[in-house]
Amino acid sequence: MVTLKDISKHTGLSVTQVSRAINNHNDVSEATKKKVMKAVDELGYVPNLAAKKLASKNEKSIALIVVGFEKQHSTNDMLIGIMSGVFNCTSENDTETVLYLYSEKFLKQKSYLQFCRERGVSGAILCGIKRDDPNLKELIKSDLPMVVIDIPYLTENIGSVVIDNEKYSYLATKSLIEGNRKKIGLINGSESAYVSIERKAGYLEALKDFGVEIDESLIKDGEFSRDKAKECARELVSENVDAIFCSSDLMAIGAIESIKELGKNIPEDIAIFGFDGIALVDYITPNISTIRQNSYDKGYKASDLLIQHLKNKTPMRVVKSDCEVCIQQSSEAKKK
């Protein structure tokens, strides 16, 4: 890669003169600027934008880091809502948003912190990470300000935006129980995902409070996958469940497909309740009961929390985003 030193050697000018010419400073003559720019063209020099950002106190940018983007299903519109909320908030605050999409394979080559340092961003918003992610632990130990979405971290430099997964999973399960469902299965997400731990806890707490027997064999790991959820649903149907609470709408869609293939009716034979509130739940037949998150609100609040910390030294916080319980056709009450 061509550097300022290479241009300096090529032109016979000092590195400082070359730098000032490239940045169009007024104290550099037009002849010198032309000489330097000619060398830039001949050598193919490309400015280091990250270095320029680091050197400029007026340059403001934050990174939105999305992990596991390659596993996002095309029907999952929650990420778009988060991105929109982040972008609108940064735009209102004259701050640049830089989007980084990571795969697990790529993370083994370069950490989040490395990327943030190389790009010279002022802070970061993290979405889709797992609590046991080693690269997250590296970031936590650093001094880079950041906001984590969906995991409740709080330190001097770290804040978070979360929903009360346990509360809303409790309400979803409670709704199924009040709909005269007696044997309720759970298709959960991933054991290492914080939201899955909380959603399972809410499900179990509701069963306990309403005197419904807890059967661990009715709890399946659907890995937030539509196809995996279809497998889980087939297993639960064989156990004669009359309701299934799914920790994501995508898994609820998979469960509905599997139940229909087995000749069962929804909600007459088996009720379904999802979580997230993606747009597609309103277009499935029957439309799916769900806990509707406000993804835009999560993105906006995460961005606002980070920007206020960077601009005004406002202390980091754990900020809550509210959800809506949406009862639809898939979980209508069972006739006694």
Automatic annotation (TrEMBL):
The keyword Calcium does not apply. SMART domains: HTH_LACI. Pfam families: LacI, Peripla_BP_1. One of its GO terms (molecular function) is transcription cis-regulatory region binding. Keywords: DNA-binding, Transcription, Transcription regulation. Residues 2-56 form the HTH lacI-type domain. PANTHER family: HTH-TYPE TRANSCRIPTIONAL REGULATOR GALS, LACI-RELATED TRANSCRIPTIONAL REPRESSOR. This is Transcriptional regulator, LacI family. It comes from Romboutsia lituseburensis DSM 797.
